[in-house]
Amino acid sequence: MKKISRSVLLLTLAVTVMITVISAGCTTPGTPTPPGEKEKVLLATTTSLYDTGLLDYLKPMFEEQYNAELLITSQGTGKALEIASRGDADVLAVHSPAQENAYMDSGKGLNRRCFAYNYFIIVGPESDPAGIRGMEPVEAFRKLYELGTAGTPDIVFISRGDNSGTHSKEKSIWTTAGYNYTTDIQKSGTWYVEAGRGMGETLQLANEKQAYTLSDEGTYLAYKGDLNLVPVIDRGDILLNVYSVITVYSDTFTPEEITAANNFVDFMISPAVQDAIGTFGVDTYGKNLF
């Protein structure tokens, strides 16, 4: 599969996301905060994004431009959305479209914008004991299930198991492969391990066990130097991984708090920051992470 160019795909995704934005209502664009006391902005995000280092890279740029203090908490997408639903965050950066749609439908989100994408990959031992290298992702999952449930030696799959965006993607692949995740996959044997951890820690666990796992490409590249795992599958439309930023809405928030959150959304989709995101990782990893 030929990967779509970054500019074309982001434009297509932006148009799609705008449908949700229009129906949910969109506040006016943010403006830089006047000099004085810094406005605190709490960002709830996913470990898959945070572990790449992108947000720490962009943080000082945002803080200088908007005279703000950006506070970041990272966990799985499901947990990040839960935090936002309680009104305990100002803005979200997540990557699970189905969960995001449900959140927007609840009326607790505004100004949803896609700002980056990469691809999920299936990584595993170089020896590839399951023999899935180069297969279509859905067929690879079927083979892992067949070999794993048959007790084939050295066949282990590590799942995030944490209701994150990566875990949601994994479950969608199992569903596409024809399995019921709850009844067919969970507790189907010792070959299937639910880590309940972030992406970086899940990769480390998979490395320890020389197992297969699903990872976003960015986090894998960030951890690659410490792993003896290689990408065995990195092609397939189902592996597209889209990141969106969303302003959190609560009727308890002040107009100033909503504006500060919108500032971060506007910052992430601005041309200069889009350029920075598009080149992030090249100097360190030899390719862009997004």
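Next protein, fold it too.
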Amino acid sequence: MEAIYDFPAGEVVESVSLISGALDVLYYPIPCSPVSPFVGAGLAGIYFKPKNAFESNLNDNFLEYQMNIRAGVEWEISSKWRVVTEAGYFTPSSNKLDGENNTHEHKGLFGTNCDTYMSFNLGFLFYFSEGNPSTICDNFSGITVGSPLTNQLTAEDVEKIVKDNLPKEIVKEVIVEKPLTEEKRWILVGVNFEFGSATLTKESFPILLNAMQVLTDHPEMKIEIQGHTDNVGSESFNMMLSQRRANVVLDYLVANGISESRLVAKGYGESMPIADNNLDEGRTLNRRIEFKIR
């Protein structure tokens, strides 16, 4: 940082070298959105050294604390990576930062006799792991993350819905093993995910194993893995979620020996329902993974 003092003899430029380590509390009002704003506040320890200070006795090393206020936006570019834009407002615990320790100034946070400065940052953020989705992710009424669902459907219920609504052949309860030539696609009924996330449930793996066997038996087959959701939640969130779920299925197949060159993952969000989203069983059917032969 630099400060400029204007004297009759000319300008004098003071520079300051500063290192800080902060502990801030951040609040995300809409944490599950691909564009997620945040605000934060906290404390930091700072080390700084003025050079060419207006008051020569301040050309020394100082170790102090400061108060932080910040606000910014995280821009999602993948399930783990974010671009972060941020502005910060900081007030150290003294008035020495600019090289002039004037005791009659009141320019700090809350009118204190302290210096202030701002920063504007652009960077990248990587999430090594994520916990359960926030209840704020439910930007709709009537459903709470982690709450028990009423009228849960059994495998037999799902099979009946599929038979009643889809002109397809259902084999072995939950998976169409022979894609019909006419439509060249099949639905993996029973490939489920944890609510609001792209984490596969344990009952999904036998179905994926069966699908993997079909692909192994037909090495010429190239597949578009389609992720679909119901209409619960925002359209943008559902589009992002469906893409993440399709990516998870692709990664699982590749990890188990299916060539990635045969696979493409694409999310369609809530745009292609196959049943009524006003009904519990319809929403269950719409939350699905489809394989489409390319």
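About the second fold: The longest helix spans residues 235-255.
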